[in-house]
């Protein structure tokens, strides 16, 4: 039956053609009896009946032509992303099956498009309402996408799409500019004391439509760090209590034992007990002294210092490669405090797993500041360590006090400077210090 339906249109057209050919032949024979030449009769019959034959064949094929044009139109609409069209065809057979399949395809595409739009709306809602500032920058350094947090942070709430990203950064506070100029991931602070805000910067590059783009994430950590700082102080109280108990308990016990030895006249065992009491007391004294030094850091006594002499003093105490990108200059420092801060940072670089020859110090003269960078090729810091490294008493070392970086930060900020930690491209850490010139 399907083969018969498929052949019905062909049979109909063939029948029309044969009917007109028969009519043309009969007309030619009749005209031949009236006209002197036979070819005149053939020409007249063909001229009369051929247009009629063409008209009927075209009229028979007209519905199919309309269907094919409609199919072409809907395919063009699908190509343009419009899936709202459907086809109506009353006929059956293969053409009816083709129309039904085409309509099913359109319905499937509409459902997929609707699901895609819903996912895009959900993703856009998440991106726009996340507290992390997100900026997507194209190869020409123009903003492709910026969420609400980024608009508030970099554009006073206005749309940033299409703006030059470097121009936006140039209008931001100096701390922002310094963080972006250094490149890589890192943490930096803006403002001073009670107005200080702490940010974490992350940058990732990827290819989009064959072109390299950069995704920039700025996360404000101030509130989170404040909460962690409270937890850190609680931990400190526990640590100090534990250390005091570990020292005072044996001291009390040995003092009691010493008194008993005196009563019994066993004086030969007293030196051992007294030596142990002295050892525990000195340990406790050192422990408290280290914590007190951090809590009672004196204000720096600034005096003019030549960079060349200061660097020589450092190199006499610890090994590092020195790269100076300026001539000698004068900076106002508390030499003892700043030397201690630099030694802490350089020793940390040596303990990071970096080889000694890859630990380096660079010095640059900025328009209104000096910038020092301590560089290594160690393991760097993961995001959690990077966010907590400058907090007092936070340490990843088994026997560390967690005071080294915190004390360094206190010293740098007391000198009117800033400190930032950034992971280096290719591995390692960059500790950047900025001091007023």
From TrEMBL:
Compartment list: Membrane
Pfam families cross-referenced by the UniProt entry: HATPase_c (PF02518), PAS_8 (PF13188)
SMART domains, alphabetized: HATPase_c
Record has Glycoprotein as a keyword: no
Bilayer topology annotation: Multi-pass membrane protein
InterPro entries membership: BphY/WalK/GraS-like (IPR050351), HATPase_C_sf (IPR036890), HATPase_dom (IPR003594), His_kinase_dom (IPR005467), HisK_dim/P_sf (IPR036097), PAS (IPR000014), PAS-like_dom_sf (IPR035965), Sig_transdc_His_kin-like_C (IPR004358)
Top-level taxonomic group: Bacteria
Catalyzed reactions: ATP + protein L-histidine = ADP + protein N-phospho-L-histidine
PROSITE patterns given in the database record: HIS_KIN
Major place of residence: membrane
Record EC number: 2.7.13.3
UniProt keyword annotations, A-Z: ATP-binding, Kinase, Membrane, Nucleotide-binding, Receptor, Transferase, Transmembrane, Transmembrane helix, Two-component regulatory system
One GO molecular-function entry: ATP binding
Domain Histidine kinase: 239-437
Keyword hit for Electron transport: no
Membrane-crossing segments per the record: 38-57
Designated name of the protein: histidine kinase
Taxonomic source organism: Lysobacter stagni
């Amino acid at each position: 039956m399907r083969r018969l339906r498929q052949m019905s249109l062909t049979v109909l057209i063939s029948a029309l053609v044969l009917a007109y050919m028969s009519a043309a032949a009969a007309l030619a024979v009749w005209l031949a009896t009236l006209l002197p030449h036979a070819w005149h009769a053939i020409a007249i019959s063909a001229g009369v009946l051929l247009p009629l034959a063409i008209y009927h064949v075209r009229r028979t094929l007209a519905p199919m032509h309309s269907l094919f044009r409609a199919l072409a139109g809907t395919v063009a609409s699908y190509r343009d992303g419009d899936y709202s069209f459907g086809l109506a065809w009353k006929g059956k057979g293969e053409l009816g099956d083709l129309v039904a399949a085409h309509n099913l395809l359109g319905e499937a595409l509409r459902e997929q498009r609707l699901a895609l739009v819903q996912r895009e709306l959900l993703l856009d809602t998440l991106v726009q309402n996340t507290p992390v500032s997100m900026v997507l920058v194209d190869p020409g350094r123009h903003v492709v996408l910026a969420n609400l947090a980024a608009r508030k942070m970099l554009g006073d709430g206005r749309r940033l799409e299409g703006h030059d990203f470097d121009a936006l950064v140039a209008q931001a506070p100096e701390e922002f500019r310094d963080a972006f100029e250094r490149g890589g991931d890192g943490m930096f602070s803006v403002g001073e004391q009670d107005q200080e805000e702490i940010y974490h910067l992350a940058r990732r590059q990827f290819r989009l439509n064959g072109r390299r783009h950069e995704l920039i994430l700025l996360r404000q950590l101030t509130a989170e760090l404040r909460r962690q700082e409270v937890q850190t102080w609680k931990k400190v109280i526990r640590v100090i209590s534990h250390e005091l108990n570990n020292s005072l308990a044996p001291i009390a016990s040995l003092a009691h034992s010493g008194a008993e030895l005196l009563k019994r006249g066993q004086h030969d065992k007293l030196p051992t007990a007294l030596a142990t009491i002295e050892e525990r007391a000195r340990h406790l004294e050192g422990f408290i002294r280290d914590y007190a030094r951090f809590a009672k850091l004196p204000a720096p006594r600034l005096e003019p210092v030549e960079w060349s002499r200061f660097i020589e003093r450092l190199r006499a105490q610890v090994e590092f490669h020195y790269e100076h990108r300026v001539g000698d200059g004068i900076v106002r420092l508390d030499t003892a405090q700043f030397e201690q801060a630099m030694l802490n940072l350089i020793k940390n670089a040596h303990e990071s797993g970096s080889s000694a020859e890859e630990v380096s110090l660079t010095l640059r003269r900025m328009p209104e500041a000096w910038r020092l960078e301590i560089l290594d090729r160690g393991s760097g810091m993961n995001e959690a360590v990077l966010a907590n490294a400058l907090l007092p008493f936070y340490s990843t070392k088994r026997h560390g006090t967690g005071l080294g970086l915190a004390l360094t930060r206190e010293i740098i900020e007391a000198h009117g400077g800033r400190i930032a930690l950034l992971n280096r491209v290719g591995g390692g850490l960059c500790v950047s210090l900025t001091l007023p010139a």
